[in-house]
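Q: Hi! First time doing this. I have a protein sequence and I read that you can turn it into a structure. Is that right? Here it is:
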Amino acid sequence: MKELLMLERMVIESIAKGEKSLKSIQLDTGLDYSLVLSIAAKLLQRGLVDYKYGEYSVSKNDINWQKVNRDDSIKNEIKEVSDNMIDIFFDDRSRNKLKLQKVYINKQDEKILNSLLNSVENFVNDLRKDQKVNNVKVQTKDQKVLMWGYGDYQDLVQNTLKVVS
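A: Yes, that's right. Below is the predicted 3D structure, encoded as structure tokens:
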């Protein structure tokens, strides 16, 4: 498997904050220690992380990173996240938000929608910058996962027909 599973990506995101021991990765991610050990070993074997003096760091091997960051790999990761978001939403609607609407949007309204989506992206980017500037330490497990965007209904249906046929 060339793509990263969500659990593997979470461990890498934790390691990317700075060199970490297995215990500190476990505390940051909230994953079971044995699971972190297994994931770290797999990431090490794939050349995505390095291990030195009891600590893991993100590998600088661009070839290995190109493999896991290809479009089809990212697409599968997004599908995994989406599937889990849907499952979690229906399990606990009080803590999770998910909306799906089908609506006609004229050209003028589409410009407004694009502006609003750009505002969301700028907001998220500003959050990251502010946290970095203010040296805010956030545990990986405490982050929120956000998704936004839109597509043409007809394109979605046509894609479904391609898969079915």
